[in-house]
TrEMBL record:
InterPro entries: Bact_com_dev_regulator, Biofilm_formation_YmcA, Com_YlbF, YheA/YmcA-like_dom_sf
SUPFAM superfamilies assigned to the protein according to its UniProt record, in alphabetical order: YheA/YmcA-like (SSF158622)
Official protein name in the record: Master regulator for biofilm formation
């Protein structure tokens, strides 16, 4: 197996990032995100939530617990209203798709690196043991 430098691996990772950026999932995310920024109802709801969040921080700082509960309930209600807007639902769905794709890529890389290590050391892929672990067990059993 060819030995790769850290720089070569980073370059390949950059190429992979370009490939991911060109997927339908990322394209859908970009379109949904653009729609979020164009929607006045969404902007207004986000601004209201931010203002209430600042209020909540101040109320918490001054120990105004009852007022804080009301503001937090208002934030939750606004968040529910925001989440019910179709363009927000599409945006969140697109975020999930992109995150799932990134998680799939990360776990695929991780699993394959682990398998390559096990195989290259004459280990047991099914048991997840390197060759050294397999050999040390042989010595311990008196075989």
């Amino acid at each position: 197996m060819k030995a790769y430098s850290k720089d070569e691996i980073v370059e390949q990772a950059k190429e992979l990032a370009k490939m991911i950026s060109g997927t339908e999932e990322v394209d859908f995310f970009k379109k949904a995100e653009a729609q979020i920024h164009k929607n006045e109802n969404v902007k207004r709801a986000i601004d209201e939530i931010k203002a209430l969040q600042k209020q909540a921080v101040n109320l918490q700082h001054y120990g105004k617990w009852e007022a804080l509960k009301k503001v937090e309930a208002d934030i939750d209600a606004l968040q529910d209203k925001l989440d019910s807007i179709p363009v927000v639902q599409e945006f969140k769905s697109s975020q999930t798709y992109v995150n799932d794709l990134l998680q799939l890529v990360a776990s695929t890389i991780s699993n394959n690196v682990t398998d390559e290590i096990l195989i290259s050391t004459n280990g047991d892929v099914l048991k997840g043991e390197t060759g050294a672990a397999v050999e040390s067990k042989k010595g311990n059993c008196g075989c």
